[in-house]
Amino acid sequence: MAGHVTAKVKRSLKALAVVILVGGAALFAARPFVPFTPFGGGDDRLSGPPPLYMDLEGEAKVTAITLADLSDSEIEDRARRPVETIVQVRSGEKLTELLGRAGVASAEATQAIDALITLFDPRQLKAGQKVTVTHAPAPHGFGRGEFSKVSLATDPIRDVFARRTDKGGFKADQTTRPVSKQVAHYSGSIKSSLYESAMAAGVPVQVIINMIKALSYDVDFQRDIQQGDSFEVMFEGWYDTKGKLVRPGDILFAGLDLSGSEIQLYRYEDSLGATDYFNAKGESVKKALLKTPVDGAKITSGFGMRNHPILGYSKMHKGIDFGVPPGTPIQAAGDGSVEMAGPNGAYGNYVRLRHGNGFATAYAHMSRIAQGVHTGRRVMQGQIIGFVGSTGRSTGPHLHYEVLQGNNQVNPMSIKVPTGVKLAGKDLDRFQGHKRQTDLMMAQIPSATHMAVSALAKMGPKKN
């Protein structure tokens, strides 16, 4: 009987190949066509036995010829497999809409989502996330049958899914991958940028981004880093049974050697339970003000006397001009309150923030001020307060940035801004002990490797 079925399938395949090759865009439909595009557009794709009633000429042609060359057992096996469509979430798209794109009827989509919601909030879907939609094989052989399952990864460790039950409804469940917490250590020489060199050394992207954030209070990545400088980083991560990193954790240490000048940051939890990065002296890395309030900035005009590009005579330049593309987000250099926000003569669109310790910062020539930034409003360090432009007296898009001490402008690049916390007494002693343990851990883990936390604990201090 199986041989008879296979022969029929092969005859259908050969006939289909002829139809496609001769008829071009001819459509094969052994049952009503359900419109979807498993191969076309974006990252949506199909795995398992592809349906042969697709209106995709090129893909169907290749599929028919490939399947016609399969053995009888391979054809029977493929005909019994479920059909999986991997669909990528579009910007602002709801799960019901995504399932509709994958050919799922709205009533069945609602049933599946009602089950899935017990384990996962569909509102947490993000653009670019991939969702697998599974259909049973068609009763007559190749193609898609009824919708049977929807699944997605909520994080690198957990998958959730809703599967059709024998009674016709849907039930949610989840699977987790076995992982172990390990500590990884990487170091290397900087050839171009820290980002590119750390990537080349194998450091995960998210770890690099977090490392740059921690170091950005002390390092100007556009000007301070030179070829031949070096980096070192140690971080926690969760690894699967094959030794593959599935989720990076906290950075335990981040360091740079900048032409002999060392910057070392240690993650430390103080006696009150607050966590921050501290230098070797026990000073918090977090400063009252960021060194630069825009990413990728180049100084086009420094602080001091200059020949004014518009007025044509020497005039005191009371800030720093950063040359960046129009529309670049501008960050609040520190926590504070909005003292002024709006048009301000030659400054154009302007924001001035008042911080603690007698400091204020000002931002001029914005294309626009961010929504919600107005006089009296509190802002946090790093919050977007506006966007680079060329309003007011300006020759082109840039950010004019000022730091005021009291009511007087001072050079933003030379002032000493206070740190957030400086450890002392028992807290400093406790930190120094933590620092020694971190240094020992780095010495025990060779660069570009990772080691289980339990193994590190067994090794203990090295004997001289």
UniProtKB/TrEMBL annotation:
Keywords: Hydrolase, Membrane, Metal-binding, Metalloprotease, Protease, Transmembrane, Transmembrane helix, Zinc. One of its GO terms (molecular function) is metal ion binding. It comes from the Bacteria. GO terms for biological process: proteolysis. SUPFAM superfamilies: Duplicated hybrid motif. The chain crosses the membrane at residues 12-30. InterPro entries: Cell_wall_metabolism_enzyme, Dup_hybrid_motif, M23ase_b-sheet_dom. Residues 315-412 form the M23ase beta-sheet core domain. Pfam families: Peptidase_M23. Its cofactor is Zn(2+). This is Peptidase M23. It comes from Paramagnetospirillum marisnigri.
